[in-house]
Write a structure and sequence with these properties.
The complex is a heterodimer of chains A (about 120) and B (about 160). Chain A is an alpha+beta fold. Chain A has helices at about 5-15, 25-30, 35-45, 70-100, and strands at about 20-25, 50-55, 60-65. Classes of the chains: A alpha+beta (about 120), B alpha+beta (about 160). Chains A and B meet through helix 1, helix 3 and helix 4 of A and strand 1, helix 1, strand 7, helix 3 and helix 4 of B.
Chain lengths: ~120, ~160
Amino acid sequence: MLDALGDARRRSILERLLEGPLAVGVLAQQLPISRPAVSQHLRVLKEAELVIEAVAGTRHLYRINPRGFEAVRGYFDRFWTTALDNFAALAVVEAATDNGPDGESGAEREERRDEH
Amino acid sequence: MSTESSTEIVVERAASVPLAPEEAFVLFTERMTEWWPKEHSIGSSPFAQIVVEPHAGGRWFERGEDGNECQWGRVGRWEPPGELVLLWQIGANWAFDPDLETEVEISFTPSATGGTRIELRHRHLERYGDQADAMRGAFDSPEGWTATLTRFVDHAS
């Protein structure tokens, strides 16, 4: 089962890491979580590919893995492409109905003309 | 301006339209219902209307065909005709989440030909990381959400 407390702790760890890379010990000092528990949560986050572990000498640093966010990025990239395409198409129709032959009525706000 | 950290995740898109910025701004906000992708609704029924209240702090919500309102977020900045910021607060579980704040920044710039260049930046998508358990796969497909939970439970156990 999902452990709600575990979720909240993982969130707090991610929030810290969003500010920059940190070592396990530092995270354990900053959060009300024991060091073994921090390690456990980091392992989960690492398996979920949301954080990356880097070894510098004897220190293990953890940081956010931007590639873990590819699905989010891809989703919004597709979404806004579709949305702005729709918007631009509507704007073209609007410009054609608004401006009539002289094409100069840009300054005047047009109330909607639904029919003609 | 430059609050960007190395981990900020942004999606940027742009479009050019043959309308003056004033008209483009109105079309974008007052008539969002007409251009918003139909399948992108989180209510209990398809949306009948999308409302962007025209002031900073205003609500941004959909009203379903069944009359129910479903909040999406808020207006962060309302400066027609040039600047608009919408705070997108829909979580990875497709429900309004008051604790999540991602920013959709839209600028309307006049072009030389009398039209408008629209630049959209959806900022701080890294904040979805707070929802690590829900996020993986949630954005891949409508079914992704269930698969994600299953996978996460496997990881967590």
